């Protein structure tokens, strides 16, 4: 059991989740964060913290796709244990649906 | 065999980046429930109601599980209240700990059952089943809870009467406590059982739906204007109590967006 970050995070990256994760299992890309599904302990504390509801349990209908995406990038991107600043235009993207085409595969510059 | 396993725990080095603390007391309530207290790391800060990851030094890579800190943030020890799961990866060993043993703590306390995640209100309801009472054991011993709410009601539902003991002894002790006793005189504990005979019986969600809990306590029904809620129990209980509170017009909040009720998902039964 794990939680996953879905495309609602892309270009918003508010990072309220980072503050509360007890096992620091978030990994940071240029415009999204993902969960290392092998490190997540399924505690769920991050889920209600996200202002754009980008964190979901792995019981959602298309969970498999998101588990694979989260794990793929968690293995490529650096760990993030402390919240940074969201992008300046984060709010402009908060209501945009289906942002997967906007995902940057680049790791965050930490 | 298992006693040997517990004694061998010191064969493994303490992992880096965790607190290694010493057990100061252990109390067994039933064959399924026990409480233990450990020393508190001097540098540890947490908010009453938060949980931490606990493990034992009995493997190269210890198994950690989320445990609500049952003691308040001002206490110089840490208290935990646990079930004993047969063959549970952690509790099988944890239930055998003795005074002087070492317990590991990961360093980051967190959680949603904190006063900060609730908007100001007059009355605070804490709904618990089983070991889900633990975060509330912390919060009802914290003066801040009584500074923020005029009235505090803790509901505690278990299958059997003996499983209520921890909560009953806790509340009785709080009323006598020199620090919070006076503040906590109005604290109400509402215990029910679901299996064994007891003066008050039933699932808390059924008692909320029928209004019996309000009649039994002699209080007004829940309203979003005055009432705030915190929920900690089994997955089924979380789901149903959340639905019940939403039915009263309350809305789930979080640390970043406080609202009228909060839910602990980290609870494992």
Word description of this protein:
- The complex is a heterodimer of chains A (110) and B (269).
- With 110 residues, chain A is of the alpha+beta class.
- Chain A has a domain at 3-78: 2-Layer Sandwich (Alpha-Beta Plaits), CATH 3.30.70.20.
- Helix content of chain A is 19%, strand content 11%.
- Chain A contains three helices and four strands, in the order βαβββαα.
- Chain A has helices at 16-20, 63-74, 90-93, and strands spanning 3-5, 26-28, 33-35, 55-57.
- In chain A, strands 1-4 form a two-stranded antiparallel ribbon.
- Chain A starts with a strand and ends in a 17-residue tail after the last helix.
- Chain B is an alpha/beta fold and 269 residues long.
- Chain B folds into two domains: 2-106, Beta Barrel (Elongation Factor Tu (Ef-tu), domain 3), CATH 2.40.30; 115-263, Nucleotide-binding domain of ferredoxin-NADP reductase (FNR) module (Rossmann fold).
- Chain B contains eight helices and eleven strands.
- Chain B has helices at 2-7, 91-94, 134-139, 143-148, 165-176, 204-210, 212-217, 235-247; strands at residues 18-28, 33-39, 51-55, 65-68, 77-83, 102-106, 123-129, 151-158, 188-193, 227-232, 261-263.
- In chain B, strands 4-3-6-1-2-5 form a six-stranded antiparallel β-sheet, with no helix packed on it. A five-stranded parallel β-sheet of chain B has the order 9-8-7-10-11, with helices on both faces.
- In chain B, strand 10, helix 8 and strand 11 form a beta-alpha-beta unit.
- Chain B is globular.
- The two termini of chain B are 26 Å apart.
- The A-B interface holds A 16, 19-24, 41, 43-45, 47-49, 51 and B 51-53, 64, 66, 106, 108-112, 252-257, 262-263, 265-266.
């Amino acid at each position: 059991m794990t939680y996953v970050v879905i495309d609602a995070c892309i270009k918003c990256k508010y990072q309220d989740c980072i503050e509360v994760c007890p096992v620091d299992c978030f990994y940071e890309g240029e415009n999204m964060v993902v969960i290392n599904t092998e490190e997540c302990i399924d505690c769920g504390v991050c889920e209600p913290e996200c202002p754009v509801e980008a964190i979901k349990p792995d019981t959602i209908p298309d969970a498999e796709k998101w588990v694979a995406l989260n794990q793929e990038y968690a293995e490529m991107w650096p760990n993030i244990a402390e919240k940074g600043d969201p992008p300046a235009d984060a709010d402009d993207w908060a209501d945009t649906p289906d942002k997967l085409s906007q995902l940057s595969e680049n790791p965050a510059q930490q | 065999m298992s006693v040997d396993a517990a004694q061998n725990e010191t064969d493994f080095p303490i992992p880096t980046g965790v607190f290694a603390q010493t057990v100061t007391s252990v109390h067994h309530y039933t064959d399924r429930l026990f409480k233990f207290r450990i020393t508190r790391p001097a540098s540890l800060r947490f908010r009453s109601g938060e949980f931490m990851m606990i493990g034992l030094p009995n493997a190269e890579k210890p198994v950690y599980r989320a445990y609500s800190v049952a003691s308040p943030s001002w206490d110089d020890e840490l208290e935990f209240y646990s079930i004993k799961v047969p063959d549970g990866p952690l509790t099988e060993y944890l239930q055998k700990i003795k005074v002087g043993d070492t317990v590991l703590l990961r360093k980051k306390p967190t959680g949603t059952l904190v006063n900060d995640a609730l908007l100001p209100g007059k009355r605070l309801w804490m709904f618990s089943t089983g070991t889900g009472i633990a975060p509330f054991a912390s919060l009802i011993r914290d003066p801040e809870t009584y500074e923020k709410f005029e009235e505090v009601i803790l509901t505690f539902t278990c299958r059997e009467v003996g499983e209520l003991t921890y909560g009953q002894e806790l509340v009785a002790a709080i009323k006598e406590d020199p620090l919070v006793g006076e503040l906590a005189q109005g604290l109400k504990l509402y215990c029910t059982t679901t299996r064994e005979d007891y003066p008050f019986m039933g699932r808390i969600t059924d008692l909320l739906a029928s209004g019996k809990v309000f009649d039994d306590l002699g209080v007004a029904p829940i309203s979003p204007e005055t009432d705030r809620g915190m929920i900690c129990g089994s997955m089924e209980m979380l789901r149903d109590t959340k639905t019940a509170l939403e039915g009263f017009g309350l809305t789930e909040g979080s640390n970043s967006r406080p609202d009228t009720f909060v839910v602990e998902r980290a609870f494992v039964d």
